[in-house]
Amino acid sequence: ICGWASGGQPISIWEEAGGGGKSLDGQIRAAGKHAGVFLWYQGESDAVNGYAQDKYLEVLQDLAARVRKEAGNPQMLAVIVQLATFGSGKNKTMEIREAQRQFVLKDPQAILVTAMGRTCDGTHLKKDGYFELGREISRALLKTRYAKKDVDWPGPVLDAAVLGTDGKTVCAHFAEVKKLAGVLAADFGALDSEGQIKCVKAQAENTRVIVTLERAVKLPARLVYGLGPAPAATLVDEAGNRAPAVILDLAQAAVPADQFTNCPNGAGGAR
Question: DSSP string covering 179-205, please?
């Protein structure tokens, strides 16, 4: 096990010319050759400072590529931990979470484990929250790296959002779950050209949630699970895996069937 960490730092510190980047490279050269897993959990500083979503994604992609090259393992698995609840004011937490998810969608050797929904003090996870997150990361590695067939991971992940004819009702489908639990209306919302739209009702089925918005959306628009910087994010599957935050395009299409679908990376489908 090797690495270089520093609290309260922006992702730019880990760029190639940054102090963190140089230190991490040195640690890998000294003790990380042929390492099998790269674990990344960072982003609060960038959320607070309004770092652009696309830029965060670009820097994270470059970082992962350098880590794999330095370790001499181009197939190294990247475990990206999606940001937990952070503060209550205006910040870019939703955007950083989505950048982290988009990284996993674009990287065939990456998986996403969310820190949302864990026991938290409003800014950081508490001890119980860290232990819960650690257990889910363990399940993720057992399933993806060690191919343990009896391990239940990933958790529910939004993979389809279909807008009803009234413009206010959305059928949201979640992959990798047989029976959803912990659905809260406040965790859902939509984004369109006029801004953010609250959810006033969320009713769970087995693999779907029927979401009712406070007003009709104007397409193009997107559905959000994990709305705002501090959602309760209590949505879980039958094994207790947490649902990651997802921002997904709203489609006008056939309603997805209420049945199980696969999503092995834990990040859902492309927007």
Answer: S-B---GGGEEEEETTEEEEEEEEEE-
- Report which secondary-structure segment, H or E, holds 174: strand 169-175
Distance (Å, whole) CA 140 – CA 228:
26
- Residues comprising the chain, all counted: 271
pLDDT band at 270 (very low <50, low <70, confident <90, very high): low
Q: What is the pTM of this model?
A: 0.95
- Contacts with 195 (C-beta within 8 Å, 6 or more apart), sequence order: none
| Rounded to 5°, angle at Cα 198 from 193 and 202 | 130
Which residues on neighbouring strands pair with residue 107, listed in sequence order?
Answer: none
Q: What is the pLDDT of residues 241-267, one digit of tens each?
A: 999 999 999 999 999 999 999 999 999
Q: What is the pLDDT of residues 222-235, one digit of tens each?
A: 999 999 998 999 99
Residue 173 is encoded by which pair of tokens?
């489908």
DSSP 30-96: HH-TT--EEEE---HHHHHTT--HHHHHHHHHHHHHHHHHHHT-TTPEEEEEEP----SSS-SHHHH
